[in-house]
Every structure is written in C-alpha cells, then in structure tokens.
Design brief:
Distance between the termini: 96 Å
Radius of gyration: 24 Å
CATH superfamily: NAD(P)-binding Rossmann-like Domain
CATH class: Alpha Beta
Oligomer: single chain
Helix content: 40-55%
Order of helices and strands: HEHEHEHEHEHEHHE
Number of helices: 8
Strand order of the largest sheet: 3-2-1-4-5-6-7
Number of domains: 1
Largest sheet: 7 strands, parallel
CATH topology: Rossmann fold
Strand content: 5-15%
Length: about 270
C-alpha cells in the first residue's frame, strides 16, 4: 500500500438519511357512547388499562375526557357528538376510522330516561326516549359494523335495562325502546355472525349510577328488599360483565341478553 493511500484513505460515500417508517399500532379499538361519566367512563378506564384504544363521545367535555385525551392522545379520542342526530353519529365514526383505522368493539351505553306516567308523557319526550335509546344505537351500530366487516370481525354490546323484561310504572316508552334494543341484538346477531361479529345485550338491574342517584331512600330500601342479594349493584360489576362479553371467554356467545340484576327479575 502506498504512502499516499495511507495518508489519504478513500472515504465511503455517506448514505442518504431515511425517514423512519410509521409504527403500526395493532391495539384493539373500542367505541363507547357516553364515555365521559358513569358506566361509560368506568368501561373506558378499564379498557385503557387493558391496552385498548378508546374512542368516545358526549355532548360536552369534562375533566375526565380532557385530561385523558391530553395525557394519552395515542390511546384516547373524545369528540362532542349528539346522540339524537344520525349525521353526528356517522361523522364521529368517520373520525374514529381516520384516527385509529379500525373498530373492534362497540358499546352502546348512552341513553336517556324520563320517568313519567304514559298518559301525560309529551310527544317530545316520547320522541327523545325512542331516538336516544333505540334509533341512535341502531345508527351507531350500522356505521361501526361496516368497519368491523372490513377488518374481519368485532363485537357489539348493547346496554339494555330490566325495564325491557319486567314492567314498572312510569317507564313505558323507555321500556319499549330497550325491549326493541334487545330484539335488535338478537336479529342482528343472526345477520352478522357470518362476518365474525358477535352482538349481545347486557341487561343491568338497579345499580349505583346517575340514573339512580335521585332515587329516594324509601324506594332504595324497597328495591333492596325485593332483590334476593339485598343490595344495588355497583358500576364495576356491570362494567366487568360487559368486559366478559368482549373477552375470548365469551367468543361463542352471541344473540343473548345477559341479565345482571342481583336476582330482582327471577
């Protein structure tokens, strides 16, 4: 080797810098209606802890949605949406598709309850009860199920009510809407089973929630007395039942209504 070669070694050309390939996120995605508080919030927290990505909506943000979206934007997406507006539901699902690229689970959790005797229920309240508790879940399910079909399967859990299977005063229209939701679950399970999509209803009894917060002590005592287990349920117990229906342990369960009520309807 010459002295010139030793003093001036040949340098290899520098490689052009390459952009890093985007990291593919294969984590499962759950859509929860009404995920800002109550059962919806607990479900969101449990799914996030289990490494799901969660998308949810409500009429307005609160401390939970704001903090969670700020802390973990890669895993949590919230957007304002109107349950009573079909276009708002479809637009929300489009945003979820753009953000996360898939939907594996839909929990139709949001709903409204106006307690009043049927003969004095206003047409406006009748429309609100049917729209929010039946039409909205149907609309949201259709939009989400189309994405599930493309990705090879999914899971739908509709939150119903024991009012759908047992008569109570003051909730006739609400009960009709929830009974319709149960029928929707059964028929849809027949249609979507071929696409590896399971559809079930969860039928909770009385549990501590926003809807039972205004129950008088007298009525609470009556409910507990009529419940074989002698108490109201907890929101965690209802959430855990939803998680069971979404788990591999329930992979052969579809078209069913799972009643979680402490025995009050038995």
């Amino acid at each position: 080797m010459s002295t010139a070669q030793l003093e001036h070694p040949t340098e290899a050309p520098l490689a052009e810098p390459q952009e890093a390939a985007p990291v593919r996120d294969d984590r499962r995605v759950a859509v929860i209606s009404g995920g800002s508080r109550g059962l919806g919030r607990v479900l969101a927290e449990k799914l996030l802890a289990d490494d799901w990505r969660v998308a949810t909506f409500s009429r307005s943000a609160n401390e939970f949605t704001a903090k969670t979206a700020d802390y973990d934007p890669e895993s949590f997406f919230w957007e304002a949406a109107d349950l009573s507006d079909p276009q708002s539901m479809r637009a929300f699902v489009r945003q979820v598709s753009k953000r996360f690229g898939r939907i594996d689970l839909l929990v139709n959790n949001a709903g409204v309850l106006h307690q009043e005797l049927f003969l004095t229920t206003t047409p406006r309240n009748i429309e609100s009860l049917v729209t929010n508790n039946l039409i909205a879940p149907i609309t949201l399910t259709q939009a989400c199920a189309r994405l599930m079909v493309r990705s090879g399967g999914g899971n739908v859990v509709n939150i119903s009510s024991i009012n759908a299977i047992r008569g109570y005063r003051g909730v006739a229209v609400y009960a009709a809407a929830k009974a319709g939701l149960d029928g929707f679950s059964r028929s849809l399970a027949r249609e979507l089973g071929a696409f590896n999509i399971r559809v079930n209803s969860l039928v909770p009894g009385f549990f501590d929630s926003d809807m039972t917060a205004e129950v008088t002590e007298r009525n609470r005592d009556r409910i507990q007395h009529r419940t074989p287990l002698g108490r109201l349920g907890t929101v965690d117990e209802i959430a855990d039942a939803v998680l069971f229906l979404t788990s591999p342990r329930a992979q052969f369960v579809t078209g069913q209504s799972l009643v979680i009520d402490g025995g009050i309807t038995c």
